[in-house]
Write a structure and sequence with these properties.
alpha+beta, Aminopeptidase, 2 domains, 5-stranded mixed beta sheet, 39% helix, 17% strand
């Protein structure tokens, strides 16, 4: 009996289109990486001196909120410091123009005694005692020298304290009654109070306003 062997093909035929369609795909899944959120695209003013004070405050608040995001822009911190510096410069100029006796006021944070101090012509006019807890500053009580009580030193001191907290990105918890009165009269600083405690302090300020004696007409 003669055995015959079929000759195997030397090359393999390419699969037809129908065979490709019937063959299940075995492509490996691709792992996607989530891109960080885009930073605000608004242009930063080249000359802050030409920007109105209202626009400066709006820019300052927006930059402050942007710094609290997960991916702030690298230049955001420098821009925030520039905005705060320009606002403080304008406030110093306004204070100098409005000062009748050209008194020199100096504010400082005395960390050794945990108090914010205000000096007028080299004399301590008043201070606010505080307690620092992490990123929160607790305003406990204030003391004003009787010699300076009638010239608005307390308001100047409270404003300096809140601006200092804003610049250092500190949350404010105003347990001090004088601080509550100032915040009630200047609601633009209420955003410094932590959101979870803002309602509580707002109610305290409202109750103090109702309990305050009113002048009869």
């Amino acid at each position: 009996m003669e055995l015959t062997m079929e000759r195997l093909p030397q090359t393999l035929d390419h699969p037809t289109a129908q065979e490709k369609a019937s063959t299940p795909s075995r492509e490996l899944p691709l792992h996607t990486v989530e891109a960080p959120p885009a930073t605000p695209g608004s242009a930063f003013p080249e000359d802050l001196a030409t920007v109105t004070t209202r626009e400066l405050r709006l820019l300052c608040n927006r930059t402050f909120q942007h710094l609290d995001t997960d991916h702030p822009a690298l230049e955001a911190r420098e821009q925030y410091d520039a905005l705060i510096g320009e606002l403080e410069r304008r406030e110093r100029q306004a204070a100098q123009r409005g000062s009748a006796d050209s008194a020199r006021e100096t504010f400082r944070d005395n960390a050794l005694f945990s108090r914010f101090e205000l000096f007028r012509n080299g004399v301590m006019a008043g201070y606010v005692q505080y307690d620092m807890r992490g990123g929160h500053v607790l305003l406990l009580h204030s003391v004003i020298d009787p010699r300076f009580q009638r010239i608005g030193v307390e308001s100047v001191l409270m404003q300096a304290v809140l601006l200092n907290a804003h610049r250092r990105r500190l949350a404010v918890r105003p347990y001090c009654p004088e601080a509550q009165d100032f915040l009630a009269a200047h609601p633009r600083f209420l955003s410094l109070i932590p959101a979870r405690q803002r309602r509580r302090f707002t109610l305290l300020m409202a109750s103090r306003a109702e309990a305050a004696p009113r002048d009869d007409a």
